[in-house]
Amino acid sequence: MPEEDTGDRLRVGRWVPPLSTDGSGNDPSGYPYSRPALPRGVERRALGPGTTGPSSLRPRLLLAGTLVLASVVTATVATIVNDAQKPDPVAVQTEDIPRPAQPFEPLPPEATISLLPPPSPTVTSTFVLPTSNAAATVTRSYSPSPSKASPKPTRTTQPAPPALVTGRQSGLESVDRPGSRVRHRNFAGRLEPLDSDQDRADARFTVRAGRANANCFSLESGNFPGYYLRHRNFEIRLDRYDRSDLFDRDATFCTVVIRQGAALALRSINYPSRYVVADGNRLYLRETSAEGATAFLPRSAL
């Protein structure tokens, strides 16, 4: 049974009016809000058991244990976060590695690369002679002989075709009758061998630009200046220049390369289908093809 409360003890959680001095519960001062005191048994049942026994310590211990467990969890989480934010331990160890007191040995220089061509290989062969008493070693060395370079194909250059040169004294020699040249005798054009100084003088001609066409040629006599080879009545003659247009055309001949670039033919400028042809020793203007005309070669004047 709980102990009886004395009249001067306070009750927890409730307001206790002051006790009257006469035990009636009324305030002797006549305070209007005074209530009569309840019976002692009723007050005990309302307050319940006291809080000073051993059973009142369980909630406090439970609360304390919860707080301790929360503190441990918080400390563990903080430790994990701090470990994650720490720098790489390898870097820390690298900084802690003591440096050597002396510098490292320098690396040896690399081999120099030569730009010269490699020497010819030398082959060495070694063999042992099969003897019963001793073994003899023979070393042979040889260098391969240089390979012969294949000969380069030779290119044959085609000689330049013959041509008359303006302003030069030249002669015209027959390809088919070597030694025979164009000359004048008695003012007639002829093809004959040269036996005397007079023959050689008659065979000299100064090459001029064509009187009727500068792309062609006119042949002026070397020993009779002002006289030109021309055709008249289709015969080749040596006539004096008369300043006529007909003379200019009759005295102008164009060269045509024939025989695969080895000779020249003389074609009339005012009769394009006619060429200079030798008939015996006389020269005429005949209608023929370039290959059918007399073939000439320009020669130096004699």
Question: Can you characterise this structure?
Answer:
With 302 residues, the protein is α+β, with helices and mostly antiparallel strands. It is built from five helices and 14 strands. It has helices spanning 40-47, 58-85, 89-96, 197-202, 245-250; strands at residues 123-128, 137-142, 169-174, 180-185, 188-193, 205-209, 217-221, 227-232, 235-240, 253-258, 263-268, 274-279, 282-287, 296-300. It has a four-stranded antiparallel β-sheet with strand order 7-6-3-14, with no helix packed on it. A two-stranded antiparallel sheet has the order 1-2. Strands 4-5 form a two-stranded antiparallel ribbon. The longest helix is centred in the first third of the chain and has 28 residues, at 58-85. The radius of gyration is 73 Å and the shape is rod-shaped. The chain starts with 39 loop residues before the first helix and ends with a strand. 15% of the residues are buried. Mean pLDDT is 76; it is low at 1-8, 90-95 and 132-138.
